[in-house]
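Figure 6 in text form: structure in, sequence out.
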């Protein structure tokens, strides 16, 4: 059923209110005397609504949102796994939820211990020597890692190294983060198997290269079998190697980036270690480093001294790149990740990877008869379908398929990424989905293909038909967004 709603401005009725404030018991301040020209000349045009109307409005909005608690969310490269409610309970414990970041250290020893222990556990999982938990998201972690690579080269008198190598299958944040950090990006081609072309990489290595950014498994869901040769080649050329941990869900307990030769990485704790993150947040892009980069980590760092946990600031860490976020990161996300790790343990994490890879290969096998796989063979945690043949045959694009899936009750997979696959559909089922869910999703995909062949593209252009907004002009929405309410008078 399609549900439409008024905005709060449309629902506003003059004179209604949902609050009752006590009478002013102090002299009224003269706004002009305090704020001068900054003082408002007239009251803000806020909606006027009764409390019951406000509650119903925002409750209605919440019901329009799709989440992993509603159903299957196969958004490739995003690891939209189910989030255990035990993690939520831990994050809501008063000692964590109500702690203030400026409290004296003696009053938050438990919180500091959690941060310290989480860093140690992440080091064990990844093979890194030290961690910072400050970065607020994956791309923020990328920038933090690249800032440390830059600082390391400059400390060695090699500040002229200004190039970062990025595979053509990389996440778009990789070249963006490199550019923001002041590097030039150089694209590395993929080979016929969907992996980094080793000869192409070696041809680009010279004394201007600061490092390589690599996702393994990559965005095609393929494990880079030449990873040791890749990292060794970059090191011999004097560069460092950055691991994009967005796809770490596939390797938990099986292999470690530190053992593959990576010098620095970020982990999306909100993906791999379970925090609800649809709609843009919250997140955590924790960054781990090998010992050579430890001095450059953002300050402050949580340290244990004589059984007491303390924050070591920049005054004791002269090579630190400085603070990259207010306080110590998104603490609630860190509590959830800590709880997730402690609940599963080493054996549980290994099972996460096994089930994620099993689910992906099972679903890939079921769908490969409908859409050709971008690259054949065993995948890791995700796979990419090529929607090009269906579009050539019927005129129905991957975007049309994605919109039709919404009407079928699913969040669509990632579309048109990676860019090296035409009409790409990237699917990541994660480890938390049962076989029955995967079978039903495959059946829905089969029904969509059958309808495309029988009815053609016109049947899809109005989809989705079950949502408040059907098919907006996405180009116009991106280039000319309407971000605030437009009053008529």
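Output sequence:
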């Amino acid at each position: 059923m399609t549900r439409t709603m008024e905005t709060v401005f449309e629902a506003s009725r003059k004179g209604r209110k949902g609050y009752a404030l006590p009478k002013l018991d102090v002299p009224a301040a003269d706004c002009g005397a305090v704020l001068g020209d900054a003082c408002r000349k007239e009251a803000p045009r806020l909606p006027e609504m009764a409390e019951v109307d406000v509650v119903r409005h925002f409750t209605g909005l919440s019901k329009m949102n799709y989440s992993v608690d509603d159903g299957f969310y196969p958004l490739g490269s995003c690891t939209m796994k189910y989030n255990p409610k035990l993690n939520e309970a831990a994050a809501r414990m008063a000692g964590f939820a109500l702690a203030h970041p400026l409290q004296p250290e003696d009053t938050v020893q438990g919180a500091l211990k959690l941060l310290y222990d989480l860093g140690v556990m992440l080091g064990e999982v990844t093979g890194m020597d030290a961690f910072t938990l400050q970065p607020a998201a994956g791309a923020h972690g990328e920038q933090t890692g690249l800032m440390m690579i830059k600082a390391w080269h400059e400390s060695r008198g090699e500040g002229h190294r200004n190039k970062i190598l990025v595979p053509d299958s990389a996440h778009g944040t990789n070249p963006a983060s490199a550019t923001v950090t002041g590097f030039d990006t150089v694209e590395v081609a993929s080979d016929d198997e969907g992996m980094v072309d080793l000869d192409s990489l070696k041809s680009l290595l010279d004394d201007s290269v600061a490092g390589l950014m690599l996702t393994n498994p990559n965005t095609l869901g393929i494990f880079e079998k030449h990873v040791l040769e890749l990292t060794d080649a970059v090191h011999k050329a004097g560069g460092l190697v950055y691991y994009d941990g967005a796809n770490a869900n596939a390797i938990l307990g099986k292999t470690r980036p530190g053992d593959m030769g990576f010098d620095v990485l970020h982990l999306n704790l909100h993906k791999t270690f379970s925090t609800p993150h649809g709609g843009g947040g919250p997140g955590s892009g924790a960054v781990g480093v090998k010992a050579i980069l430890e001095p450059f980590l953002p300050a402050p760092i949580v340290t244990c001294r004589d059984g007491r946990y303390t924050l070591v600031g920049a005054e004791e860490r002269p090579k630190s790149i400085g603070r990259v976020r207010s306080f110590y990161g998104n603490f609630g996300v860190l509590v959830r990740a800590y709880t997730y790790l402690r609940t599963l343990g080493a054996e549980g994490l290994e099972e996460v990877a096994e089930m994620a890879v099993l689910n992906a290969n099972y679903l890939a096998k079921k769908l490969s008869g409908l859409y050709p796989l971008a690259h054949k063979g065993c995948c890791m945690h995700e796979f990419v379908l090529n929607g090009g043949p269906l579009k050539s045959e019927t005129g129905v694009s991957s975007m049309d398929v994605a919109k039709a899936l919404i009407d079928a009750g699913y969040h669509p997979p990632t579309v048109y990424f990676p860019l090296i696959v035409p009409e790409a559909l990237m699917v990541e089922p994660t480890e938390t989905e049962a076989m029955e869910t995967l079978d039903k999703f495959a059946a829905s995909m089969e029904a969509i293909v059958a309808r495309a062949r029988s009815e053609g593209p016109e049947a899809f252009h109005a989809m989705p038909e079950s949502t408040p907004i059907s098919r907006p002009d996405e180009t116009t929405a991106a280039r000319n967004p309407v971000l605030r309410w437009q009053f008529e008078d």
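Caption detail: The CA atoms of residues 106 and 447 lie 61 Å apart.
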